[in-house]
Protein: Fructose-1,6-bisphosphatase class 1
Organism: Zhongshania aliphaticivorans
Amino acid sequence: MSRTALPEFLSNAAVPNELQSVILGLAEVSVTISQALAKGALAGVLGAAGAENVQGEDQKKLDVIANDLIKEALAALPAVRGLASEEEPDVLACHTDGQYLVTFDPLDGSSNIDINSMVGTIFSVLPHTGSAAVTEQDFLQPGRQQAAAGYILYGPSVMLVLSTGNGVAMFTLDQDQNRYLLTEADISIPVEAKEFSINMSNQRHWVAGMQHYISDLLLGKEGPRGKDFNMRWVAAMVADVHRILCRGGLFTYPWDSRKPEQAGKLRLMYEANPMGFLVEQAGGEVWTPEGKILDIQPEHIHQRVPVILGAASEVKICVDYHQR
Ligand code: AHG
Ligand code: MN
Ligand code: MN
């Protein structure tokens, strides 16, 4: 069977050349990252880097390796005006006539690295609309303005999942030829959910709306929802959202009272917006208790946000519990 390769797919979809170059640059560097991950302990890349990032989190060696590889690959592309990374304190200026700004989470799910479990790279591409010299301000655009968003999932297969605003397509890495081939086009999330995804260990710290919503799910057939739900938690947003794109369900990382000043754990510009763009493109919904995430006007690049996303009808029910 002959399958469409990523470059051909992008040309067929009439994606602008400069945007194609950014997506292909990310695809290429992801192959190198996947090879480092596959070598694991043999390449001495597992374990802690011994430093803390701007988010106040301990970095793994692979967080740093993936960040450096992506930074170097993107900075070499004339279409890239500037970069912002979860692992970098400040935005980085690149080419003065580049058309795009790229934000990324170089390695999502880092706590999975040392247990040989799933991790990913998440990226978001925004148009550059500001002045010549790139500042943080230029990046502060609502997620709805993304020109493209996607992720690479380093699992049993390496997959690239992408939207340029015209649906969601999935590509699988052919590891013999190091190229991504189209394996699923037009992804669509079922409206009703049978699965939910949340870190249950934090239950006692959630707001009342979330506690009530999850308790009702746990009551299953005998409760007000009248049906049983299954639960999954990979501890890598990229893998949990991938499951939702493949077979539906709801994913949430709520605000929690242990760090009241912090609006949840997930980052708006590196996680919620790009994954949210994909989920909306696949017919799902993406909310905080207050409104749609893609409409949020960001205030700074490392901003965090409570996230409720996935099956359209289930997300609305969850938001409803918060608004009662
Ligand atoms: P990162 O590895 O980029 O810091 O992101 C991890 C995030 C997200 O991917 C995942 O859903 C969540 O943290 C897992 O959190 P818990 O530790 O609460 O399971
Ligand atoms: Mn992450
Ligand atoms: Mn990360």
In short: Residues 45 and 62 are 6 Å apart (CA to CA). Residues 57, 86, 105, 108-111, 199, 235-237, 253, 265 surround AHG (ligand 1) (CB under 6 Å).
